[in-house]
Specification:
Elements: E1 2-13, E2 16-28, E3 33-37, H1 44-51, E4 59-64, E5 67-68, H2 74-84, E6 85-89, H3 100-111, H4 116-126, H5 142-154, E7 160-164, H6 172-187, E8 191-195, H7 199-204, E9 207-212, E10 215-219
Parallel strand pairs: 3-8, 3-9, 6-7, 7-8
Antiparallel strand pairs: 1-2, 1-4, 4-5, 9-10
The structure holds adenosine-5'-triphosphate and magnesium ion (MG).
């Protein structure tokens, strides 16, 4: 489902060259639950951005569901992303002025799907927020905000869900609730890739990929 071959990402900033990823080879199969661990600056977010089609590699080949992603233009990438990938970030990335329901509706509206309000409400119900649909992000707790973000990630029923430190801003109990939701999603067949420093999450995943200095160190 996800296949990276010789993926390199080089940033040039103020005359300085940073090789964030160096010839990364990685395969992630349908229905896997993988965690990615490694020190700060090791390239985890860079890798997630490439897997998630938010960014293109400098070199190497990326095939997603049979699609050669590295050859696509921006519109093509956006379309692949919208259909295949749900994102959950550490800082939630919700729109502050929109209600929970409106935030979850966004990917559906972008895709031109009919019945957006009903589907968004159903996704919020799935994450246990049926009684918070009209709340804006500043009227929700951290764990509730992350659940809204998870509802937004799953509302298009994407085959792949990518999470970049989803419990990084949550206390351990709230983090455990979010972890439960991930286990449910995995149980329903989603492919989950989670960047995390959280040993609980790593322990529940099927495979831990460790990266350091832009290279895959080990797969346990
Ligand atoms: N847009 C950018 N321009 C220049 N350098 C960048 C850019 N994004 C990331 N880098 C550099 O690439 C390297 C990898 O960064 P990345 O964000 O992938 O690390 P990370 O493993 O996610 O770290 P953390 O655990 O702190 O989130 C770092 O050295 C970083 O400074
Ligand atoms: Mg990061």
């Amino acid at each position: 489902m996800i296949e990276l071959k010789g993926i390199t990402k080089t940033y040039f900033l103020g005359g300085q060259r940073v090789e964030a990823l160096s010839s990364v080879d990685l395969r992630i199969g349908k229905g896997e639950f993988v965690s990615i661990m490694g020190p700060s600056g090791s390239g985890k977010s860079t890798l997630m951005n490439i897997i998630g089609c938010l960014d293109r590699p400098t070199s190497g080949a990326y095939t997603l569901n049979g699609i050669r992603v590295e050859e696509m233009d921006d519109d093509g990438l956006a379309a692949v992303r919208n259909r295949n990938i749900g994102f959950v970030f550490q800082s939630f990335n919700l729109l502050a002025k929109q209600t929970a329901l409106e935030n979850v509706e966004l990917p559906l509206l972008y895709a031109g799907v009919e019945g957006a309000a009903r589907m968004a409400a159903e996704a919020l119900r799935e994450v246990g927020l049926e009684n918070r649909m009209g709340h804006r992000p500043n009227e929700l707790s951290g764990g509730q905000k992350q659940r809204v973000a998870i509802a937004r990630a799953i509302v298009m029923q994407p085959p792949i869900i990518l999470c970049d430190e989803p419990t990084g801003n949550l206390d351990s109990r709230t983090g455990a609730e979010v972890m439960e939701l991930f286990r449910d999603l995995h149980g329903k067949g989603s492919t989950l890739v989670v960047v995390t420093h959280d040993n609980e999450i790593a322990a529940h995943s099927g495979r831990v990929i460790t990266i350091k200095d832009g290279r895959v160190l080990s797969e346990a």
